[in-house]
């Protein structure tokens, strides 16, 4: 009787960004982010669980656990039951631990009208996770009896997932020679007083998108550029109040979705960051000058040629033969040190704006607004993120620090510009 062929185990290599997020993982830190949909009706958790069970097989890149090999981390399919939807908690985006919760690297929560998805950043960037959430919301509404089409970014859960959705797009677009060197200057960190583990202070501001666009347009800027300038101004003011003898540049890490520049259907990570900054040692800047500086920096550095050079540099490091044979623990230590130097020191904080959350028109009446939270930073400071739905832009500050003067100055600036802000926070005060 012929011997049956043993099937090769299915596993996935980590992309370039995922390798870094996995290497810097600690007991008290994970690169976690959250997207939430605030629905018009109270959430039915049983219908939501059915929707999760039906939707996730269409997204195999999220149905994985992470394993450490001799030289690299890798993903393998997670055959454990779940993940199971849970009632929400006060402190979101808590660290994952690779050996706990059956190895799941995604979480689903509900509370009142809110449905939340939390993702370990090694799995996917915001664009990939929003595709998952959009499709899940469509399936959930179908479970409630609504007819929702597979359009406007809602994927068909009855179709097999195409291989393109799992491609490592960094590898695809890395060139053989062109590289961009490292060396951004150290930026003002603005770290605050750490809260007890694990306390994530979240402050959300809800603003009318049309008024925000109008104000940004008055400065000749996009909404992202305008909000980045407001954030830089608030951090500059914080540094000035500290009375430092020598002030450092204030710089933001602004993630850029690469898919519009390098066509790819990947649902994995495919982002790079740009670094708009202001150096107060050069003199005082008016707010219009800050906006102009941010605007021109973003337009100059978001170019196909420069971004491809950065992709190539990062992938070449990953392909380095000497690095490949270094044992995983030593490699992770080296990458963690590198992240602290090149991933934290050149930036004062992160600001991300995934843009507008689009859904089929028949879904719109079922959603009040969308929310986004970047989990704790690698150092004790607050991150900032924004997301819009309809005419509401939601802007979130989240961090494990006691102080809140940056977010206060940020929202006060918007109010001075005539933009109404409704503030929601989980702080005790």
TrEMBL record:
Domain of life assignment: Bacteria
Protein name from the UniProt record: Alcohol acetyltransferase
Organism: Intestinimonas butyriciproducens
